[in-house]
Amino acid sequence: MSLPKKIIAAGFFGIMICIYATTAWSGEIIPQALPEIDKVKLKFDANSLTLLNVILGLIMFGIALDLRVQDFKDVIKRPKAPLIGLFAQLLLLPAFTFLLAYIWMPGASIALGMIMISSCPGGNTSNFITHMAGGNTSLSISMTAVCNAVIIVMLPANFAFWGAMHPQASQILKTVELDPFKMLFTISVLLALPLVLGMLTAHYAPNIAERARKPFKIFSVLFFAAFVVIAFSKNFQFFIKFISVIFFIVLVHNTLAYGIGYLTGWLGKLPARDRRAIAIEVGIQNTGLGLILTFSFFDGLGGMAMMLGWWGIWHFFSGFTLATIWNRIELPGEAEG
User: Quick one: which of 186, 161, 169 has its CA closest to 114?
Assistant: First the structure.
């Protein structure tokens, strides 16, 4: 086995050991929050929900400015890397998230929050972070294009399936009588319109799209981060009480997501640039969509909303940190990365 592969294998076992160790440690942390966090309902009025819908629309419009019909054609012409990446993002991440939530049993609302996160599509900064990390930006864009097209069906399917399988989370799903078809309709409205408008703008007004692309990405990220901070400030007493638990779970869960993406690419014998792109696509999630669904269908359930909100802040930090590290690693040959 070559040195890079030994390093990757060691990293894999290191991640598994860390998860095992933190799982054991979590027994000292997570149960302290269980009785209360499932009863928390975050304060969130109709105006705030409308604002979040607008922000998500801007995020999705910004994503669509990077998409072309050619991106979908590229997947058909060269399907191996995108399909491996989508397999990791749409199937493996929800499955391993369920496994982690099943081992931890962190409480119903937190488990549902973890499953919702894993069911969401990639975030709006994944393409930029992939470029910054020296990854395959074209692959990242192709994955974003296909994922946002199929997520309309895959999100409610994954969420309903894995949520119903979890002993704690399933109790909440029974209580709210979640209708997957109603969720599918909501997601269709939230995603389809801004995606279509963005792609039409990019196609028929490429100069405008080029000038708008970067500002949309920057301001949508800033607006979302500001929104989460303000939302947490309105629920400051809950944030202070539960942040240590939420921080710990998001840290491990997000690390697992990056690991799943990278290792799936490695097992698929993809080049280093492709593995980096897939890792970032799997690790950066559109939690804005998850927050809207949480407040629309679960009345701002505490564990879910706090998981999604904190992930939406944390993955920027972890993504840019990972990209900075990878950008400094320039090893010769395709086997490395």
Answer: 169
